[in-house]
Amino acid sequence: MAGWQRLFWGNQLVSEIAASPNEESLKVHRFQMLSQADAPKPHAQVDEPTDISKENVIDCRLEVNLRWQPFDFKYKILVNDADYLAGERDSKDIEQQVPEQAIVVKTKFNLVGLGILGLKLLKSAKLIKVALAGASLAAYAWLFSLQFALSLLACLVVHEYGHIRAMKYFKMPTKGIYLIPFFGGMALSDGKINTRWQDVVISIMGPTFGLGMSLLSVLAYWLTDNIFFAGLAVFNSLLNMFNLLPILPLDGGHILKSVTFSMNSKVGLVVCILAAVFGVWLSYSLGLALLGFLLLVGSLEIFSEWRGRHQSHLLPLDRYGQIFAAVWYLITVASFVAIIWFFASTGDELLGLPLKILQS
Predict the structure, then answer these.
(1) Would you state the pLDDT for residue 291?
(2) What backbone phi and psi angles, to 5 degrees, belong to 14?
(3) Residue 359 burial (CB < 10 Å; 0-12/13-18/19+)?
């Protein structure tokens, strides 16, 4: 079935082409606009009686030639059967596009609005970042040691900075990194993604930066023979491996979702549900309460993705993008496994612990 198209003028639907077995890429939208007082308004073609004179009606025609893989979008606009505008866009243009923000409706003062305003102020305050980072450092130092706490925060910051760099590459506004005690870290953005490729790159760049840190730690261990760097390489690899589990809302889950939903919505739904079931089993086997909480959040994300599949504005990955994303993911995972395996082979009981966790 060829996907349907909906054309809006402002917030008003003016033309719609329903899904059909016709796979032709050329689609034609026709609608009318009313020329009144220098402020033309859209006028859908309906069978209702009207007293508008024909002189005030502008006939509009939009010809759309759309190809998904590789993405290529050509359009031509005719006004009263005369050429008006034509153009073409590809995936690079979509990546640089800034999504339109929903219209904010002003509401009267109330306690709920005051609470939301307070949360927004807290979310944007630099003081909160410092406070959360300090709380994380204190909590981990109290439970383990100051050296471990500093190492953990370094791993988290490098990982999240990878996400931030990817967001900035796509010219997305960022809010920075938030370290949350006993949860990890978050890289926040004010922007929205336009393509599945953006979701893949932003998601995998965190573990990729983490891999760079692990490799540098391995190099430092070879140069200094300091066991601290070996432990840092192994621990950081295990931390990023956990994040690459194909479970939403972890980075691996976002990569899996983008690849499978680009293939087909039903394929994406089935694969993401199977991954969630795997996550439930893993959470029960290892007794990870945090993973159980993440699975709950991920289940809501799967439901939201499926519910909005017909209205999704995200440009899907083409076949090349799907293969490239999968290979990138597998190479990153294999690299972390190789680092963990290498240090486990040294015979050190502590360095071999991550491998035992993976084998379980």
Answers:
(1) 64
(2) -115, -15
(3) exposed
